[in-house]
Each structure stands twice: as C-alpha cells, then as structure tokens.
Please model this.
Amino acid sequence: MFKFLLSFLLFYSFAFSFEVQKPQIYDDQNISGWLMSEKLDGIRGYWDGKAIYSKNGNLINTPLWFTKNFPPFPLDGELWSKRNDFEFIQSTVLDTNSSNDWEKITYNIFEVPDAKGDFPTRLQKAKEWFAQHPNPHINIIKQIVCKDEQQLQNYLNEIIALKGEGVVIKDGNQPYHTGRSPHILKVKKVQDMEGIVIGYNYDKEGKFKSLKLKLDSGVIFNLGGGFSDKERETPPKLGMMVTFKYYGFTKNDVPKFASFLRVREKE
Model:
C-alpha cells in the first residue's frame, strides 16, 4: 500500500492533467474586429496556481525566483527569450536542472484560464495582479484590434521580417473555452507540423534518404528534404519528435513540399 501511494504521489508531482486552447489555421475567415498578437516560438507553459506545466502536462523545473509573485489562479503563456532562438529556449526550459540561463527567459501571458468575461477582461485580471505583485520576467502579450484582412497581412509581414514565427488572431468576445477552436486562429506564411520518427529509408548505396514519420492524424509519410549533411549522417532517432514545414496537403492528407526543421523534445 505504501509503495502504491508513493508511486501515485511521484506521478502526480510530475504530471498534471488539463486541457488547453488550440488554434485552428487561418483560411480567409472573417476576422474583422478580432484581436491579433505575435505568435511566439517558445515552450508553452500553463501555470496552475502553484507550478508551471508543459502543454502535455509535464512539470517544468522553474527556479523559485522565476515564479515569485505569480497568482493563485491559472495562467497560460509562452516561455520565450527572443525571436529565432528556439533551440536555446527548449534546452533551458526543458532541462531537469534549472540553470542561470533562465535569466533570459520571460513568461508571456496570452490567456487567463477559467476567468470570467471576454478576452480583454480576462487579460485585465492578470494585468491588475502583476501591477500589485511585480515580476520582471512577466510580459502580458500586447493585443491589437484587427480591422481587416489587409491589416492582418501587413502585421504578419512585419513579424516575418523580424524573423518571428507568425500571428495569432482571436475573437475577443468569446468566453474562455478549451480544445481546438474556430475562434482562435494561427496565421503563418508557411505551416509547420510535428511527427514521430517510426523508420528510415535508404538509397541503393545504404545512405540515409528520408525519415518515415507518423502524424497525429495517423498518416504516415516520408520526410527527405531540409536535412544538412551532418543531419543525414546522424538522423533523428526512432521515437523522436521532429518539426517540419509544409505547404498544404495532398488529397490523401499528406503534407506537400515538406522540409525538416528540427528535433523537438517532448514537452
């Protein structure tokens, strides 16, 4: 009985079950009057009132000083440093031993889960809390009212020019909700996706040709583009999660013109 209880407590201390908001892909929907912000390419962090967890419910080992003055209510945001810096962010945030590199990390809040009211009202709750309980690592992501499609594309072009990832646009009138939502959309020049390495393909000379990936949808396809010579010599291992970019889908739901970007650690 004691061993069972100990195992349960250990599991619970490292895993946390919750559901988060997930955006759909922008496809010329009517977004007039919605709120848009930069999509940060970092590690998502869910604050449950006591600790920060990854989007998959794994405990993130933050330094105690990093979460000083955090509120007793939930927050959702992105752990991030700067644009085009994902490898540093990932290695710092997902390290089981927190290092001084956390000094360069900020927590960028884009939602206050379970709070009442519309989106601006929910964000205001976080703003008021941190006005009274300052923390230098906190940033509440600026939201811009979008007038029309042209303004959205202009803003997206600005972000891309600065080596940013893209834009998130959200219907600010909606109450808080979880799951994949048509009221939250991500806008990018190029889409990206993740897949699990389940095998390899080689040419007649025995050299690495492509990865065999399995997507969340169950689709299996070969990813052969985007690898450097070094990456071809030591391709990602079986079971690893990799991120790739693509341009739409074929009629069989296979990503078109897919190209390898990086290995993504499981969060």
Remarks:
- The chain has two domains: 2-187, 191-264.
